[in-house]
């Protein structure tokens, strides 16, 4: 190294080091930005999937509400016949459901298809609503399983008890064809129990659908804001 040029080489070396550090920092920044964009894209795709599954849940459980309301009307009419209320107007109506056996079904596309959604979503409002969604669904599941248990425990004995009567009933059943059941105190008590458990299920599903609607609104807003 020539005499008097040490300072120049030192400055050159420092400059090289600074340029390398700047290059490294820029590369890290670009990498972080790419990872962030990748994460945002994944989250956006997840929210779109969640929205589709939430819509499917809405359709399914709306149908369950319709089914349960039909059953509630069935047991209301049977209890009224037992009490001799509006006998003439009820007895000739068609029975749309079997009072001696039922089993409620349940499923959630959103929960079944997206088990890691809560951990993958970063939006605070969505995370909170997903937690609420799971809790409301758990209540629905509990009410359904309880109702199904009661049905299995008490409906099978009724089918055995009324086997001959049930087998003789016409293809299109009217309430008048079920008078043998409403005249029996034990049977009508079981119908009252079925009705009460059905009402509990109906309440839980309605609460779940309210949360379902709120979640769909949040997901729609998130998707619109992050296109």
Could you characterize what this model shows?
This protein has 227 residues and is an all-alpha fold. The protein has one domain. Helices cover 79% and strands 0% of the residues. It has 8 helices and no strands. α1 runs antiparallel to α8 and α5 runs antiparallel to α8. The protein starts with 5 loop residues before the first helix and ends with a helix.
How many β-strand runs? 0
Gyration radius, rounded? 32 Å
**Proportion of residues in extended strands:** under 5%
Number of domains: 1
From the N-terminal CA to the C-terminal CA, the straight-line distance is 60 Å
Helix content: over 70%
Structural class by SSE content: mainly alpha
Q: Could you spell the SSE succession in H and E letters?
A: HHHHHHHH
Compute the number of helices.
Answer: 8
| Large-scale geometry | rod-shaped
Mean pLDDT: 88
Q: State the low-pLDDT regions, or none.
A: none
Main sheet overview: none
């Amino acid at each position: 190294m020539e005499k008097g040029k040490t300072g120049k080489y030192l400055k050159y070396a420092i400059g090289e080091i600074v340029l390398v550090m700047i290059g490294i920092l820029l590369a890290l920044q670009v990498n972080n930005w790419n990872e962030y964009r990748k994460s945002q894209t994944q989250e956006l795709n997840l929210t779109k999937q969640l929205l589709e599954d939430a819509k499917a849940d809405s359709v399914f459980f709306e149908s369950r509400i319709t089914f349960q309301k039909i059953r509630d009307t069935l047991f209301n009419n049977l209890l009224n016949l037992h009490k001799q209320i509006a006998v003439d107007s009820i007895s000739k109506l068609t029975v749309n459901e079997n009072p001696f056996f039922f089993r409620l079904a349940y499923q959630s596309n959103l929960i079944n298809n997206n088990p890691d959604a809560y951990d993958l979503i970063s939006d605070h409002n969505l995370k909170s609503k997903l937690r609420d969604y799971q809790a409301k669904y758990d209540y629905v599941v509990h009410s359904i399983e309880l109702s199904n248990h009661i049905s299995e425990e008490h409906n099978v004995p009724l089918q055995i008890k009324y086997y001959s009567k049930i087998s003789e009933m016409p293809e299109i059943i009217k309430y008048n064809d079920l008078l043998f059941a409403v005249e029996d105190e034990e049977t009508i008590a079981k119908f009252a129990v079925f009705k009460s458990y059905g009402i509990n299920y109906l309440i839980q599903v309605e609460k779940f659908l309210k949360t379902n609607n709120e979640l769909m609104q949040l997901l729609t807003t998130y998707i619109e804001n992050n296109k």
